[in-house]
Amino acid sequence: MSSYKPPYRSSLLVSLAVFILYIITLAPTTSWWDASEYIATGYGLGIPHPPGNPLFVTLARVWILLLTPLGLTVAVSVNLFAAFTSSVATGFFFLVSHRVLSGLFKQPRMIIIGAASGALLGATAYTVWNQSNVNEKVYTVSVAVIAAVSWLVLRWYDDQEGIMGQRSLLTAGYLMVLGSTNHLMSVLPAPALAAFVLVVGPAVLVN
């Protein structure tokens, strides 16, 4: 079992900083393309264009209900949902970057700075930023799933024989399957995950 200790507090701060940035630049209403469709179906539990996105619709509806006391419009509420899920993804990507850099360098401060820089760079890339606060669709949920899966696989890597490590790997698989009901891009990590497991710890496949 690895002695690595994840910097969850720093991850939370990075996520919060990105969420605040997205709120400041949040679209005040809906935008072009599919954004209006997803906002409407999230509000009414409808079915977007085939094959549909049941996970997004369900999560968006719950989010709208949670924010109802704030008196926000449905469009703003769903835009905030995209901002929130994208900031969650940023937090997980920070953890992934930190874990990778920890295996390469020894200076804790430089590792934190490097991981934060990478996470913030990804969060402010044009396409990610646009999907997170203006052109809201289903993609930020899938990005959050991909980020979480990446982190869970690394947690398994650090504790392959332990119960928490095995649970992390199972949870990663579960999240990808669940994420496929949001958008099929959620299963993009599957080939890399399978290859990683085969190289690092193939015994887990027959356990």
From TrEMBL:
InterPro entries: GT117_domain-containing (IPR052724), TMEM260-like (IPR021280). The chain crosses the membrane at residues 12-33, 63-96, 108-126, 138-157, 184-205. It holds the Pfam family TMEM260-like. Keywords: Membrane, Transmembrane, Transmembrane helix. This is DUF2723 domain-containing protein. It comes from marine metagenome.
